Amino acid sequence: MTHAAITGWGKCMPPATLTNADLSTFLDTNDEWIVSRTGMKERRVSHVTASEMATIAAKRALACAGLDAKDVDLIVYGSCSNDEQVPNSASGVQAAIGATKAASIDLNTACTSFLYSLSTATAMIRTGVVKNAVVIGVEWISPFMDWENRNVAVLFGDGCAAVVVQASDKQEGVLGEQLGCLADARQTLRVRGMGTAYVNRGITMGDTEWDFDGPEIFKRAVTGMVQASHAVMAKCGVTADDIDLVVPHQANLRIIEAVVTRSGVPMDKVMLTVERYGNMSAATVPVALAEALEEGRVKPGALILMPAFGAGLTVCAHLVRWGDRVTPLGTTDADLPANKKTALDIINGIRSGKTNAKERSGEGLRNLRFIEAL
Ligand code: UT7
């Protein structure tokens, strides 16, 4: 059987850093509340688009794998913050890296998009459709964040990472996965104002508001990820004692602690980035994976558990067997253009743009209750 090994990895984190103190300059919040409820101290704010971050991460992952972009057969772009709906974002990355023979797919399952993309690429490699794939997890949330809503504005950040997945004779890469969706809870997380349902409804593009039932998402996320983790371990015939490292979705430190301990794994086996980056949606798992490799926490042959959840509510858990190589084959000079603004400058620019959009839209968004029937 053909397997799909992860042979390259690379992250691209925008440099501007938004602290809890920065947030409390325009929101009724404070460092103590944010740290005690979420474990977050800071997050990044991007000065470039999602596809620009994705391009740099993809170039770094390809250099790490020693693979020429011309040999890439497939790009899967996992995200819910695409630059545009048409054309898709994967095609933008394809053009930017010169992957001239690649098929290019956008995949949106919100925060689980990277892991669902990894499943897609793995399945296409196993069936022989493609041999070499780039799988991206990227999110540029700051432009559509509802910055006046403290329930959500403190939780999210921007970022990106990519992996290269290649056909292999060895039993490496995704050993198994459990995928699902708790669609009865899909009303708990909705971004109003993005998508065709809002066109011709008196809405100005760029005006977004979030429906967000934090405590309900919290409960469903913990139960869903624990069930998915136990299911994938049972499918693959392994126990919690066999897990070397957990690389979970990083939405909240308390969620991670609940999931990992209920899955039977000690917290010292968990890779955490939530304190420094917050919830980067699709980017959390690949960024944490790339940093675990940089820090030497992934040993040759390691068994890695990756549980995640996101809007939908999509839920999943993957078991990955790492290969022999834990160091990059090469590097690249590719980097983002320099940024001259502070994170607060960038956010305040977005906030004033949104205020203008709201004035133009009036109460339009809040009146769009028809969306709830979907
Ligand atoms: O990737 C998927 C994305 N979704 C998630 O990850 C959400 C999962 N949920 C959570 O992480 C948690 O539910 C939150 C961090 C969102 C909230 O924590 P909580 O312990 O469930 O708090 P809560 O919602 O019960 O809020 C408690 C209080 C409320 O005040 P009252 O009504 O008790 O007076 C909130 O208004 O905290 C207030 N609050 C805040 N206070 C200061 C909510 N946000 C803030 C804030 N700063 N930023």
UniProtKB/TrEMBL annotation:
- Report the protein's function: Catalyzes the condensation reaction of fatty acid synthesis by the addition to an acyl acceptor of two carbons from malonyl-ACP. Catalyzes the first condensation reaction which initiates fatty acid synthesis and may therefore play a role in governing the total rate of fatty acid production. Possesses both acetoacetyl-ACP synthase and acetyl transacylase activities. Its substrate specificity determines the biosynthesis of branched-chain and/or straight-chain of fatty acids.
Q: Where is the Beta-ketoacyl-[acyl-carrier-protein] synthase III C-terminal domain?
A: 234-322
Name the gene: fabH
- What UniProt keywords are attached to this protein's entry? Acyltransferase, Cytoplasm, Fatty acid biosynthesis, Fatty acid metabolism, Lipid biosynthesis, Lipid metabolism, Multifunctional enzyme, Transferase
Give the EC number: 2.3.1.180
Residues of the active site are C111, H249, N279
Pathway of this protein? Answer: Lipid metabolism; fatty acid biosynthesis
The family this protein is said to belong to = Belongs to the thiolase-like superfamily. FabH family.
**Ranges where the Beta-ketoacyl-[acyl-carrier-protein] synthase III N-terminal domain occurs:** 105-180
Single Gene Ontology BP annotation: fatty acid biosynthetic process
Reactions performed catalytically: malonyl-[ACP] + acetyl-CoA + H(+) = 3-oxobutanoyl-[ACP] + CO2 + CoA
Domain text: The last Arg residue of the ACP-binding site is essential for the weak association between ACP/AcpP and FabH.
- Do you know which Pfam families this protein is assigned to? ACP_syn_III, ACP_syn_III_C
Q: How does it assemble?
A: Homodimer.
* InterPro entries linked: ACP_syn_III_C (IPR013747), ACP_syn_III_N (IPR013751), FabH (IPR004655), Thiolase-like (IPR016039)
Q: Where in the cell is it found?
A: Cytoplasm
Molecular function, one GO term: 3-oxoacyl-[acyl-carrier-protein] synthase activity
Q: Where is this region: ACP-binding?
A: 250-254
Q: What class of enzyme is it?
A: transferase
Q: Name one GO cellular component term.
A: cytoplasm
- Species this protein is from: Candidatus Viadribacter manganicus
The molecule here is called Beta-ketoacyl-[acyl-carrier-protein] synthase III
